[in-house]
Specification:
- This protein is α/β, with parallel strands linked by helices and 338 residues long.
- The chain is built from 8 helices and 15 strands.
- The strands form 2 sheets. A 9-stranded mixed sheet has the order 14-13-12-11-7-10-9-8-15. The chain has a 6-stranded parallel sheet with strand order 3-2-1-4-5-6, with helices on both faces.
- Strand 11 and strand 12 form a beta hairpin.
- Helix 4 packs antiparallel against helix 8 and helix 6 packs across helix 8.
- The termini are far apart.
- It binds nicotinamide-adenine-dinucleotide (NAD).
């Protein structure tokens, strides 16, 4: 397969730290870089990207096949609409948009313009969560009851900027809850029905006193006759003990340590119906962002599906926005409202 030219929309930390090392091994040549903040460009000098510009139209008009959009959250939808209109395939960072209407407009624009659109949730396609879904699908814990995700972490110092500010697109829900929904939705495999959440501000260094700790409960439809519940905790100011996930069934359970941590290989333990416990190998090894790029490359070439389709991205966003609305309006939100 020949290399594809890709333009980076957003000179972001995630683009530099996680994605840059993975483009070339997966058949992408980074040929353009866009950001609104020129002060970011010197940090990228070592990569010698042929076109570095603060003019999005110029980048979209250049000889690129695809874009990777990792700007601030409120810029995702307008930039994705522009990329679709320019006929470029799109790997879009989460959250796809700040509203369901805008996210649906992006999906429609990609369809109308005949470009591929995938969402860069890194967790669901990884070996750990693929293993957990396989164990559940194989009936190893019987019918699924519930899942609990602990995704409370300490936000690294260098990204404590717009995420914490009281600006559109900031906050822990659009940063982390949306990732947790991207894991839970395919695990349950039925529609999320309703969402209830509470959030507070805890981290003493969060000078804006914006919400940095959220707990969310989601009810999933009973495809097999049993109603199902999931619970998540996302936080920016919790340094210990690391992330984890528990999945409970009528006959057994699955416990995952470091379940939501991209830099550490998670471990999967199966609690069997007879009470014994077995560690399950996951075949971990490939970087999670490499998996996403490899599958995006195959998707563009009509040789596979992306890790997270636009429809799956929409559903993850719907759960996150329902959590936000639940906190704002102090009520449980039926998903059909979203
Ligand atoms: N899929 C993942 O695992 C993952 C991981 C990290 C980030 N992300 C997503 O990637 C995107 C970028 O995140 P990031 O942390 O790498 O972004 P970042 O803060 O490095 O940069 C994003 C953009 O914001 C601008 N910016 C940064 N600070 C600013 C400020 N104070 N005021 C105005 N503009 C500012 C930058 O110029 C850049 O265009 C976000 O949408 C985030 O949700 C995804």
């Amino acid at each position: 397969m020949p290399n594809l030219n890709i333009g980076l929309v957003g000179a972001s930390f995630v683009a530099a730290d996680r994605m840059m090392p993975m483009f070339a091994p997966n058949g992408f040549e980074v040929s353009a870089l866009f950001d609104t903040d020129e002060q970011r460009f010197p940090l990228w000098a070592e990569h010698q990207i042929p076109m570095v510009s603060d003019d999005l139209d110029a980048v979209l008009g250049s000889d690129i096949d695809a874009v990777y959009i990792s700007s601030r959250n409120e810029q995702h939808a307008p930039q994705a609409l522009a990329a679709a209109a320019a006929g470029k395939h799109i790997l879009l960072e989460k959250p796809m948009a700040l509203t369901m209407a805008d996210a649906r407009a992006v999906v429609d624009a990609a369809y109308r313009n005949g470009v591929k659109l995938a969402v860069n949730h890194h967790l669901p396609g990884g070996p750990v969560h693929s293993t957990v879904r396989r164990l559940v699908d194989e009936g190893r814990i019987g019918r699924l009851y519930s899942a609990r995700i602990n995704h409370a972490v300490a936000l690294p110092q260098k990204v404590r900027e717009w995420r914490l500010a009281p600006v559109p697109g900031g906050g822990v829900i659009l940063d982390i809850t949306v990732h947790d929904a991207s894991v839970l939705n395919p695990l349950f495999g039925t529609m999320p029905l309703r969402v209830s959440a509470l959030g507070v501000s805890q981290a003493p260094w969060n000078v804006h006193r914006t919400m940095d700790s959220v707990m969310t409960t989601i009810e999933y439809a009973a495809g097999d006759g049993l109603p199902k519940l999931a619970q998540t905790h996302e936080a920016f100011g919790v340094p210990f003990p690391g992330t984890s996930m528990e999945v409970h069934g009528e006959d057994g359970a699955i416990v995952v340590h470091d379940a939501m941590t991209p830099t550490i290989e998670g471990t999967v333990t199966w609690h069997k119906p007879d009470g014994s416990v077995e560690d399950i190998p996951t075949g971990a090894g490939e970087d999670l962002y490499s998996i996403n790029l490899r599958r995006f490359r195959d998707f563009i070439s009509d040789e596979g599906t992306p890790t997270v389709t636009s429809d799956e991205g929409l559903l993850a966003l719907a759960v996150a926005l329902a959590a936000e609305r639940s906190i704002g309006e102090a009520r449980t939100i039926p998903l059909e409202e979203m």
